[in-house]
Design brief:
Blueprint lengths: L6 H25 L5 H33 L1 H4 L3 H30 L5 H11 L13 H84 L2 H23 L2
Helix pairs in contact: 1-2, 1-4, 1-6, 2-4, 6-7
Amino acid sequence: MSSAQDPFYIVKEEIQESIEKLLSTFHQWERTPPSSGDRLHLSRELITTCDSIDWQVDELNKTIAVAARDPSWYGIDEAELEKRRRWTSDARTQVGNVKKSVVAGKESNGMSSSNFDGMRRELMRMPDSHQTGRNDPYTAQDNDDFISSESDRQLLLIKQQDDELDVLSASIERIGDVGLTIHDELIGQERIISDLGSELDNTSNRLDFVQKKVAMVMKKASAKGQIMMICFLLVLFIVLFSLVFLT
């Protein structure tokens, strides 16, 4: 599977774009005076974006763990898996550093306890009695973009899973047909063996009967009669053998 078709690289590009936007916003945050209202808004936006990217990276790590169970099925090798793990680790570290810097800058602003609690509630998306009824157009837009991006990614993953399930279903159906064919063949072979066993039993009973008759006749007959009887029985045996095994 090419990189353009691999869902990992599609999601990776989306996350990379989010990280680049995060860094651009972070540089803007660094240039903003600590006491301004824009600084507070940028801090909320940065931490929310960091949490969102962390979640996406976690989901990407789960897909890597699934692929690691059977790399050949997904057409990748151990080197590619290690490359993907390294990228997610670097992305997590980069986002974590931004978040730590924002939190450290927020704590060093000397804001009062009430202001800090209010900011924390906003970052955790908890309702605040002083902010009821306010709408943040930036946060709403970011949420809409994130939901749209995640919906597209989920649809892509679902489509890939459906294709894989279709292939698996076809394979199982073929295996079932082969199993039924083998079952029918075994039943036919069993019938042939049973018929052959019955014929052997009948032949054995006939030979036993003939042997007993021969023994009785030989006791009563003379030497010449015995020789003639033996010849007769030999001919009879040949005829019976021909009837049983050659017809």
